[in-house]
Amino acid sequence: MAGEVTSAREYSSTRNASNAVRGEVRTVGGATENGYSEALKRSILSYENKQRREANEAMAWYDYDGNQLNRKQGKRDRVAILKSDVPSPDLIMTHNHPSALGERGYMRIGSSFSMDDMLIAMKHKAKEMRAVTPEYTFSFKRPKGGWGATQAAVRRAYERAIQQVTSEGQDYADRVGFSETVNNRYTVTFWHKINKIVAKEFGWDYSKKKG
Hints:
Elements: H1 38-51, E1 58-62, E2 68-73, E3 92-96, H2 115-123, E4 128-132, E5 136-141, H3 151-176, H4 180-202, E6 205-210
Parallel strand pairs: 3-4
Antiparallel strand pairs: 1-2, 1-3, 4-5, 5-6
Helix pairs in contact: 2-3, 3-4
């Protein structure tokens, strides 16, 4: 829709069950709040811990003093972000991914960022994009010099990474066969693996932690 963009969609949720791959579920990178003041940490973590249990997505904007400058309520799997919703550039954007609510086992981990999430962050010149699930927190921090790429270049990088992770998943399924556990691990780590590849290509600070 003209004038708005939408946030994370579960690209992998409808993938063929045979696309299974052994995934990573441990913390990567540094703590997602590295560099935060105590005031910012208290403020944003308090908000995010409430949002983890919400059934619909919402996006909030924080400055580095810990002030919430705006919040936009969305629907189950998206938030429509208009230019007028964004208070200013150089803010922290944080939103929840509710798809893991009610899930068990690996599926409770939830999904990392989609390509759309990061294009939103770039479009609105965010310093950081965050996402929380019932149990995990994901973060992409912008380098000091900016995101360092055009949206077209980032889109191409994501498309290549999607092909790579999908191919690796198929190769693994061909070797070991399908099981529900293996497939669930693949599903919840699909975007995580893609984001690690994209982060390495552009020098972005990507991290994930439990809680």
